[in-house]
Write a structure and sequence with these properties.
The chain has 127 residues and is mainly alpha-helical. The chain has two domains: 1-42, no CATH class; 47-127, no CATH class. It is 63% helix and 5% strand. It is built from four helices and two strands. The chain has helices at residues 2-18, 23-39, 66-103, 114-121, and strands at 47-49, 57-59. Strands 1-2 form a two-stranded antiparallel ribbon.
């Protein structure tokens, strides 16, 4: 709200100052404004990709959604890398468990015993 009040006061001060400007100066200011607006270039927005060491690659209206497409591609690539990384970590953990079980002194027949599986699944603390 403070900014609105400040803008109102600035506008009032500028409007009050308009009365003090001679009509000839006012007409010259208006002509200069129109001349400046006429010279202002109305450039069409263009997308530019950064290049390393070479000329910049500019795209006009050929690919209007290039930034969004690149962002989605980067997101998908990141998700794929994350999935791959976690799957590698999971397989590595399984390899460690398998290696530990195979190098243990427990005979392979013990793994077929149902009581052994119940003992593995039992999370109750020992007394």
């Amino acid at each position: 709200m403070n900014e609105e009040r400040y803008a109102y006061r600035v506008r009032q001060a500028l409007n009050h100052g308009l009365k003090d400007i001679p009509p000839a100066a006012s007409r010259r200011l208006e002509a200069a404004r129109h001349l400046a607006l006429g010279r202002q270039k109305q450039a069409a927005p263009q997308m530019a990709l950064a290049s390393f060491g070479g000329p910049s690659f500019r795209l006009g209206t050929h690919v209007p959604y290039l930034k969004q497409i690149l962002a989605i591609a980067a997101l998908l690539l990141g998700m794929w890398i994350s999935f791959y990384w976690h799957s590698v970590q999971y397989v590595t953990a399984l390899e460690e468990v398998d290696s530990a079980l195979l190098t243990d002194e427990l005979p392979p027949d013990a793994f077929l015993d149902n009581d052994f599986f119940e003992w593995l699944l039992d999370d109750s603390p020992e007394d």
